[in-house]
Amino acid sequence: MDFDEIIDRRGTHSVKWDMMEKLYGVPADTGVAMWVADMDFRPPACVQDAVGKMAAHGIYGYYGDDTGYRAAINWWMQSRHGWQVEPEAIFTTHGLVNGTAMCIDAYTQPGDGVVLMTPVYHAFARVISAAGRQVVECPLAMEDGHYKMDFDRWDAMMTGAERMLILCSPHNPGGRVWTAEELRGVAEFCRRHDLILVSDEIHHDLVFPGHRHIPMPLAAPDVLDRLVMLTATTKTFNIAGAHVGNVIIPDGDLRKPFAARMAALGISPNSFGMNMAEAAYSPAGAEWVDALMTYLEGNRALFDAGVNAIPGLRSMPLQATYLAWVDFEGTGMAREEFTRRVEQGAGIAANHGTTFGLGGETFLRFNLATPRARVAEAVERLQGAFADLQ
Ligand SMILES: Cc1ncc(COP(=O)(O)O)c(C=O)c1O
């Protein structure tokens, strides 16, 4: 578990490093990639061993018998999140963006509204629009520098054309870990407006000490008849390229439309993803995640201290995720100017806040899951790029 090791990812078909010049104009040989949400760390040895075993065997045929995979999910959810998952409730998709898109397909019709609490993970809006549905942006409110839900305002925005709400729990960006009360509020909102609730909990293991993630079925057991849960090993263990995710549907009737879409699209598992995920959900994987979170806590502290020392910049205190959400509003600069300083001045590729929807306009998102030396360098570069404000 050497999180300090600098591993050169350039030239490996890494979207984060090999696409940053094309997308952000930041050259990979001199720049720092701090955008898309994958980590610059190797996954735990148990995952590497699973891939090594497949390579040593050398036959890459179709995957079958997922009993061990389902048992591993149940073990993980039970031991890490106190949640018992029925094996037959689990569907395996090619990642959670794919899972979200299939939920939209299974539970809504073209033209229907899908509610998002913005700013939120940008791929939600992308798949909603691509499927010919309407993105309904319900802006999060801000209280004491954190996002909070605003049900009274959102109630007034509903028109009756909405069919689904996609919740991000913990929230990306901004890193809120929603409380039981907030989660129950979401469940009640969905019941009031007759919405299917898709709860994307992909960041549920990346929670900092002092906060506790509560799976939606535990916070609001009465929402099960309209609940679809999304979970995955990929964000936790840095295996996003394996494209494997779980769509968990506790209610038997609600499962049927989803099962029908799976069958219609001919979706079957990717054996690399299944074997990696099964190996990850183990005591060795759990130990690795605990060490990871301790390391990320150090990165967060270093980044926040350095960035908050720059007048006008404010990094939102993260309760979860490794995705720092920095507000540049206090600089008084236009978006083009602070973005130019970060990209061309500091040589850092960070996600543009506008892509996350309403409320993201003055923000950039920085990925801190990289060796600490690189975080320190990024802080120095940012201080240099905004030195005139000091
Ligand atoms: C909330 C959320 N859902 C889903 C994903 C991506 O899921 P996948 O790689 O399984 O498609 C991300 C990636 O950052 C995310 O933040």
Which helices and strands, and how do they pair?
Elements: H1 15-18, H2 20-24, E1 32-33, H3 45-57, H4 67-81, E2 90-93, H5 96-107, E3 113-118, H6 122-130, E4 134-139, E5 141-143, E6 146-148, H7 151-157, E7 162-168, H8 180-192, E8 196-200, H9 216-219, E9 227-231, H10 234-237, E10 245-248, H11 252-265, H12 271-280, H13 283-308, E11 314-315, E12 323-327, H14 335-345, E13 348-349, E14 351-352, E15 363-367, H15 372-385
Parallel strand pairs: 1-13, 3-4, 3-7, 7-8, 8-9
Antiparallel strand pairs: 2-10, 5-6, 9-10, 11-12, 12-15, 14-15
Helix pairs in contact: 3-12, 4-12, 5-6, 5-11, 13-15
Pyridoxal-5'-phosphate binds next to helix 5.
List keywords for this structure.
7-stranded mixed sheet, 41% helix, 15 strands, alpha/beta
Mean pLDDT: 97
Give Rg in angstroms.
21 Å
Bound molecules: pyridoxal-5'-phosphate
How many DSSP helices?
Answer: 15
Helix-residue proportion = 40-55%
Sheet with most strands: strand arrangement: 2-10-9-8-7-3-4
Describe this entry's structure for a reader.
There is one protein chain. With about 400 residues, the chain is an alpha/beta fold. It contains 15 helices and 15 strands. Strands 2-10-9-8-7-3-4 form a 7-stranded mixed β-sheet, with helices on both faces. Strands 11-12-15-14 form a 4-stranded antiparallel β-sheet. A two-stranded parallel ribbon has the order 1-13. Helix 3 (about 45-55) runs antiparallel to helix 12, helix 4 runs parallel beside helix 12 and helix 5 (about 95-105) crosses helix 11 (about 250-265).
